[in-house]
Design a protein that fits this description.
mainly beta, binds CU-O-CU linkage, Cupredoxin, EC 1.10.3.2
């Protein structure tokens, strides 16, 4: 195994998009940021130098971080942010995962421009469980704001209203041909006739589930969230923010150009969202020239994408994924948890001016799990407080089941609209076998909630609509070959059930990966206590761990 050293300089950089030049925060002047290539078993050492004017942290999304929680990255959870002018070195080993993950800023809305791919090749001396493709490329789907994304969320925080929606979707940072002033930069994916190409698709968007497809080509899914999937062929895939999907395509069409395209999946309930389509181009070698003068421009073939509210297609895809091999799903459960996930509206506090309550009917948006709206600490990270025994930073009374039982997907009790703010964690013993039923509630929701767990992959046993009912829904559990993922889309008006073994000590955030929702408090955190001895305990903190 190798050790890879990188330096990430976080700095403001001029980025031209949608006809204007912006001063965007980037890593090493690149947007999207650098792609990191490693092998399963390698160690990664990344020194992050903050030359921007914001506090920042970097999260290695999906990396297990076995006993190295200090390198996980969520601000105020596993570390205090890196202040302007300071640096911090993330050091961790890739242990068992193969496929595509990614890294992103995990403070404020900086991840709008601070993100990149993290590609994990098979362990030295081993190969893919599918025929090696002739080519491959990461395709990062993103969201672009003309305004400064940090201003967008700060404004929403001030007013209590929903943040402005983005101005474009992007593929590898480029909106593509269908947006103004964007044709020149469109991402081109070259291929030769007859070749197979591996597309490593990442949904890095802040607030949107996305459908993804390639015109006239079949997609064969082979991995998701850096875990292999039984190859399955489809014409369209769906990714929630945070999720990755590796697909093979074969260039078996007439020589030419074909659009690679993505656009929103937003269910039928109609919260405002961007309904535009981002494109890249799959370009066969020998295609007639595209932009040279004197040639008639041959436009690429546009694909069919499902309608934004096509829940049937979305569900058919997510439930079709099977683990590549028989999965070691725990069959006994020590922690049987039931968490509601949902939005809410809080009445305008008396002391607030009207201008601070611009949510529906003079309210403010909020969000919660089990009726608690998560508040991050500000003077210590949760992991420091837990490891060093600093009192008063959090409590450990996050409820295992909802404090109020009700018809979750029906007419929701008013009490749920106004959850209790707090920093409540749920404590578990090392090695506990955990099941979490994630139950969506129906308040103000138009999107799946992509629930992401730090520090773990989990098996997705089942998902469904309505209220989860143990007496009949347990029969739907796949205990044989469920996919192993780090982010699950809890369906609008429905539920999903996950299982994992709590074998990684530390403090681990679980949250909705829609940044609007985490901002409103749709999060909680687990404490997994140290086990016996060094190999079951969190490593000591690095000397350069930032201070708050
Ligand atoms: Cu990809 Cu907590 O995030």
């Amino acid at each position: 195994p190798k050790t890879h050293n990188h330096e990430f300089i976080v700095q403001a950089t001029k980025v031209k998009r949608l006809c204007k030049t912006h001063n965007s925060i980037t890593v090493n002047g690149q947007f999207p940021g650098p792609t990191i290539n490693v092998k399963n078993g390698d160690t990664l050492v990344v020194k992050v130098v903050n030359k921007a004017r914001y506090n920042i942290t970097i999260h290695w999304h999906g990396i297990r971080q076995m006993r190295t929680g200090w390198a996980d990255g969520p601000a105020y959870v596993t570390q205090c942010p890196i202040r302007p002018g300071h640096s911090y070195t993330y050091r961790f080993t890739i242990d068992g995962q193969e496929g595509t993950l990614w890294w992103h800023a995990h403070s404020s809305w900086l991840r709008a421009t601070v993100y990149g791919a993290l590609i994990i090749y098979p362990r030295e001396g081993t190969s893919y469980p599918f025929a090696k493709p002739q080519r491959e490329t990461p395709l990062l789907l993103g969201e672009w704001w003309d305004a400064n994304p940090v201003d967008v969320i700060n404004e929403a925080r001030r007013t209590g209203a929903a943040p402005n929606i983005s101005d474009a979707y992007t593929i590898n940072g480029q909106p593509g041909d269908l947006y103004n002033c964007s044709s020149k930069g469109t991402t081109i994916v070259p291929v030769a006739a007859g070749e197979t190409i591996l597309l490593r698709v990442v949904n890095s968007a802040l607030n949107q589930d996305l459908f993804f497809t390639v015109a006239n080509h079949k997609l064969t899914v082979v991995a998701a969230d850096a875990s292999y999937i039984k190859p399955t062929t489809t014409s369209v895939i769906l990714l929630g923010p945070g999720q990755t999907t590796d697909v093979l395509i074969t260039a078996d069409q007439p020589v030419g150009r074909y659009y690679i395209a993505a656009r929103a999946y937003a269910s039928a309930q109609g919260a405002p969202f961007d309904n535009t389509t981002t494109t890249a181009i799959l370009e066969y070698k020998g295609s007639p020239c595209r932009t040279c003068s004197g040639q008639s421009l041959q436009s690429p073939v546009l694909p069919n994408l499902p309608a934004y509210n096509d829940t049937t297609t979305a569900t058919a895809f997510t439930t079709s994924l099977r683990n590549y091999k028989k999965a070691p799903v725990p069959t006994e459960i020590d922690e049987d948890l039931f968490f509601t996930v949902g939005l809410g509206l809080m009445p305008c506090p008396r002391r607030f001016k009207k201008s601070r309550c611009q949510g529906p009917n003079g309210t403010r948006f909020t969000a919660s799990m089990n009726n608690h709206s998560f508040v991050l600490p500000s003077s210590w990270s949760l992991l420091q407080a837990q490891q060093q025994g600093i009192p008063g930073v959090f409590t450990t009374d996050f409820p295992a089941v909802p404090p109020l039982k009700f018809d979750y997907t029906g007419n929701v009790s008013r009490a749920l609209w106004n959850p209790v703010p707090g920093t409540k964690l749920y404590k578990m013993k090392y090695g506990s076998r955990v099941q979490v039923v994630l139950q969506g509630t129906s308040i103000q929701t138009a999107d799946n909630h992509p629930i992401h767990l730090h520090g773990y992959d989990f098996f997705i046993l089942a998902e469904g609509f309505g209220n989860f009912d143990a007496s009949k829904d347990t029969s739907k559990f796949n205990l044989v070959d469920p996919p192993l993922r780090n982010t699950v889309g809890v369906p609008v008006g429905g539920w999903a059930v996950i299982r994992f073994v709590a074998d990684n000590p530390g403090v681990w955030l679980m949250h909705c990966h829609l940044d609007a929702h985490i901002t409103w408090g749709l999060a909680m955190a687990f404490i997994v206590e140290n086990g016996v001895g060094k190999l079951q305990s969190v490593e000591p903190p690095p000397a350069d761990l930032p201070k708050c």
